[in-house]
Amino acid sequence: MANRGFCLWxxxxxxxxxxxxxxxxxxxxxxxxxxxxxxxxDEIRQGLSSDLxxxxxxxxxxxxxxxxxxxxxxxxxxxxxxxxxxxxxxxxARARQDIGxxxxxxxSTPLDVCxxxxxxxxxxxxxxxxxxxxxxxxxxxxxxxTPEIRVDTVRLAPRDSARYILKELDRLGWPTHR
Amino acid sequence: MANRGFCLWxxxxxxxxxxxxxxxxxxxxxxxxxxxxxxxxDEIRQGLSSDLxxxxxxxxxxxxxxxxxxxxxxxxxxxxxxxxxxxxxxxxARARQDIGxxxxxxxSTPLDVCxxxxxxxxxxxxxxxxxxxxxxxxxxxxxxxTPEIRVDTVRLAPRDSARYILKELDRLGWPTHR
Lengths: 178, 178
Description:
The structure is a homodimer of 178-residue chains. The first copy, chain A, is an alpha/beta fold and 178 residues long. The first copy, chain A, has one domain (7-109, 142-170): 3-Layer(aba) Sandwich (Rossmann fold). In chain A, 45% of the residues lie in helices and 15% in strands. The first copy, chain A, has helices at residues 18-31, 41-48, 56-74, 89-99, 111-117, 122-127, 158-172, and strands spanning 7-11, 35-40, 78-83, 102-107, 149-151. Chain A has a five-stranded parallel β-sheet with strand order 2-3-1-4-5, sandwiched between helices. In chain A, helix 1 crosses helix 7 (158-172) and helix 3 runs parallel beside helix 4. The radius of gyration of chain A is 16 Å and the shape is globular. The termini of chain A are close together. Chain A binds chain B through residues 35, 37, 47-48, 51, 61, 64-65, 68-69, 72-73, 75-78, and chain B through 35, 37, 47-48, 51, 61, 64-65, 68-69, 72-73, 75-78.
């Protein structure tokens, strides 16, 4: 069972850096012998949830589908890295319970920094009233209270954030080498 | 690339024997070193498609989601075995194209035999008018014209069907040993 997969679940506000850090983290784990699948919230919507919007129920359904895929991967010796806003604590708790081998990683970038970055221009649109249900602006984000790992992207660049996660996984006893 | 996964896609009428054969086949491939995930149409509906019915569009959407999961597994060195009626040739063609490493296996049990077996009692209900959109009764099934493998369950018991599939995979050059 030493090479059983486990799920790395990155949660945080839009533009917090989830996808960027996941992309830095994936090759580091591949170098250590793992198969890694990046489950990016935006990309996976196309494959699984093109029918869904961004209301609470839709987000929960989407998170449940991502959870299903991550679970199936993890039990087949793959490390799924989920990069998903996943604003509701209940969705993340369900993912933890369903998947079992689960590491919650909070990309804790503050709202004002995310809004300055605004990678996809969504904050601007939300402030202008062009988008509803924008997490952090007019839709809630429930920060994790006890994540296994918390990443401060104000202090750490993406590559350093990925290295920090790897170090923390080692410290917590997860097998980062396969 | 010798241990890259590939998808075994079992199509056929309800009660043709898809799931039963898939359950016989999975341990044979595991013995040979593979990680194998059984993607059963009924089970996966709960995880991914509880919102969907059984009309043409819903079946196509469901098949597309199963395809996505199978693709992600196969590219991470897992063999997904899909057991799904998948009545439309277009859905199966899309799965083939998306997944790439794809083996279409037609469980060719004739309708009258499936209806005699009627594992879930669905044919009876459909004949009584209690179920609409029952494949083979009042919903179409488009048989594969050129499947890689065709299984005759009238002649072969489930275990022998699984062994036959394995033999055919070997003959076709798929790596059944990892």
